[in-house]
Amino acid sequence: MTQQQTEQAQDDDYLEGYADILAEVSVTGRRLTRDELEARRLLGERAAEHAHGLRRLVAAHLGATRRAWPALPGTASAATTRELRAVADSVLAAVEQSVDAVAEGYERAQRLAVRQEEAARREFIDDLLYGRSDLGRLAERAERLGLRLAHEHLVAVADGPESYDETHPVARQVESALIARFGDRRILLTTKDGRIVCVAPGNQEDVVRHFAKHAHAATDGGKVAVGRTHSGPGGVVHSYEEALSALDLAERMELEGPMLRAADLLVFPVLTRDRQAMADLVISTLGPLERARGGAEPLLRTLSVYFDAGCVAAETARRLSLSVRALTYRLARIHELTGSDPADPMHRYALQTAVIGARLLDWPAREL
Question: Among the CATH numbers 3.20.20.30, 3.30.70.270, 3.30.1380.10, 3.30.1330.10, which is that of 150-265?
Fold first, then answer.
């Protein structure tokens, strides 16, 4: 069988009953029935499932119409030009209905395939970022999306003022920026729990830097956190969890900067590893501030900004919108209440550690 004959046989599979419809319509002039239309839709679905092109499908129907036209009963029995025109009008209407129904079925099958693909991708992402599913199967599914889970990966997570999904314009904007710069570099860009997530090979830090830059701009100043590089299927979820922890820490600690690295924040989990010891330090060192007028919060805020400003009084006053004289009074009041002088290097370490602990434990808003 020649190539042309093979293609014709394939086309004929999706023309089942079509010639009979044309023959009957040419005599009766009727429209297609509901069952006939549904049969054409099902043939269109089947064609889509077997990757038979829609353009070729339409061409096959038009070609079959042209071949059938001279032998149609209505054409042969037409006695006048007017009758022939009526037959032609009925046949063309049937062709229009048939092609429309076939195309509808074809598109219906494609939409279903897209939804199934999206559902499978979302299931894979959930399994990947939560560390679920069989690791071997997870790695196999990852290959289809360009990830090699046996290698090292790092994960960056962007958090902004809105909740993002994969169809959100912000997510699309960031994705376009990455594709334009890096093309296909085995990068996975997705969304999870309203945040934008980028999974990149562990040796391609330029990818996460570019992601952070564009995500920060697109989310109108949102924060981006990057986990450490880890290998293996569990490495992605480990890096992802580190990035989430860094975002949470950044919010509690009021950390600035468009990109935060989990590796740079390791000291904070160490400080809270013994939560009770840290709580005792906060209460014993900063607890007396609660006796101040207005409570502990204004003086705690003063200490926090003072340490962030490198213990420079003029810069601290500027950040707090205070005069240097007012700031000096606050620092003296802290010394009076706590017995620790923020300007004394011997006292500064304990005070600063206690301030960090207060931020981490959300004191004084939360009772320790």
Answer: 3.30.70.270
- pLDDT tens readout for residues 276-310: 888 888 898 999 999 888 888 999 999 989 888 88
Q: In Å, what is the CA distance from 103 to each residue of 50, 115, 150? A: 14, 18, 43
**β-strand 223-226 against 152-159: which pairing, if any?**
antiparallel
Taking only the tens place, the pLDDT of each residue in 102-150 is 999 999 888 887 777 777 777 777 777 876 666 666 766 676 666 777 7
Q: What is the pTM of this model?
A: 0.61
Which homologous superfamily does the CATH classification assign to the domain defined by 273-360?
PucR C-terminal helix-turn-helix domain (1.10.10.2840)
Q: What is the distance between the alpha carbons of residues 270 and 290, in angstroms, rounded to a whole number?
A: 27
